[in-house]
Write a structure and sequence with these properties.
Elements: E1 3-8, H1 13-27, E2 31-38, E3 50-55, H2 70-80, H3 82-95, E4 100-104, H4 109-117, E5 121-124, H5 129-143
């Protein structure tokens, strides 16, 4: 293998699957893959050519991800997983040479950690183009009065 890549998916199936699909494509182009993942809703380790490295996330596997706790889980990951994720990345840096980290936008903490550790990153958006466009147009629709935000919904 010429070089290694680190893939960091959030623990949500709709994000894990595309990240592993990308990793499979990249692996077929002679890259080794290190998947750094949470213990909560971890990826399927049946990708025999990948190395899976878990980090402590402080979440229980009794959680069911839903619209009611999605924001809590995302916020928790980006707040309380900084130290465990940094420890794992430091360990990998000492053991292996790799090209860059590919991470999902929901794990935005990776960007600041990578800057701190002087590592290269690539952001991989696993959402569909419709969701991406809604982020772009949401402020305009709200400004024109088509959408109103309500507190305590």
């Amino acid at each position: 293998m010429a070089s290694s890549l680190i893939i960091i998916p959030p623990p949500l199936q709709g994000h894990i699957t595309p990240m592993l699909q990308l990793a499979t494509i990249v692996h077929s182009n002679d890259f080794s893959i290190i998947v750094v993942h949470t213990k909560f809703n971890f990826p399927d380790p049946n990708h025999l050519n990948f190395t899976f490295v878990p980090f402590h996330d402080g979440l229980s596997n009794t959680y069911t991800v839903s619209s009611k706790n999605f924001i809590y889980i995302t916020s928790h990951l980006n707040t309380y997983c900084v130290t465990p994720l940094k420890e794992v990345l430091n360990r990998i840096i000492k053991e292996k040479k790799f090209s860059c980290i590919i991470y999902d936008g929901l794990m935005h903490v990776v960007d600041s950690l990578a800057r701190e550790l002087n590592l290269r990153t690539m952001l991989f958006r696993t959402t569909c183009c419709t969701t991406f466009l809604s982020y772009h147009w949401f402020p305009t629709l709200q400004r024109k009065g088509y959408l109103s935000l309500q507190e305590n919904v």
